[in-house]
Amino acid sequence: MEIMEAIASRQSLGLSVIIITKNEATRIAECLDSVRFADEIIVLDGCSVDGTADIARAHGAQVHEVADWPGFGPQKNRVLALATQPWVLSIDADERVTPELQAEIIETLSRPDYDGYRIARLSEFCGKQIRHSGWWPDYVLRLFRRELSAFDNVSVHEQVLVNGRVGHLKSWFLHFPFENLDALVVKINRYSGAAAKAMALEGRRVSVFGLMRHSIWTFIRIYLLRRGFLDGRHGFVLAVTAASGSFLRYSKLMFLNDKADEQVKKK
Prior knowledge:
By secondary structure, the protein is of the alpha/beta class. The protein has helices at residues 2-8, 28-33, 52-58, 72-82, 99-110, 181-201, 208-225, 232-266, and strands at 15-21, 40-45, 62-65, 87-90, 95-97, 116-125, 128-130, 140-145, 149-151, 160-162, 166-178.
């Protein structure tokens, strides 16, 4: 009864939901429907051309639009700065809050023991829920006190930094990261480029032997050590594509190293 009363009286929850988007028209509606229990939903859209912003507004979200792209960490700090409630739930357009997770969040915020909470994600790939391959339970820190938290300013693989105690919730997000294999390949290519640039800025270098070693180890880690073989053919595909992503990331770093070396020689 207490949980149902909290749902009915949204003002008492003290929760902002924040989302960043870019051309997420096919996924944003279901995401927003799953977080209607929050006091406010804020979407920061990167000037989508597929109607994402209009869909978000139609589903009750506050929508703000920005044209530039500073990277995932800075972009999420931008949307975090727009939140007004004491607690924040950060969610991506490809994630859904289950009824069980909704109930647990409401109950947790009524008597919080921590300043932030990690939430597991159960991900689906090409019609199959992946329970191995390093994809489960895939805890991410997404529920946190606004005034004690911020995202690190990195271009990819951003994380929430909480100045306080962090716990775990028992329920999980549903995660639909890739509509098909093509989408996975596109993301691997995009992320590998951003990661290579970040590593180059840190002064990291790699040889041909190094990129081969990273790729082979990635396959072994995911398919054997993380038991990807238990996910059947889906697990094999995920291990191979992860290894390919590692190969691309370090290949791009190698060529960035070469370019930097050439510039040094010209000086």
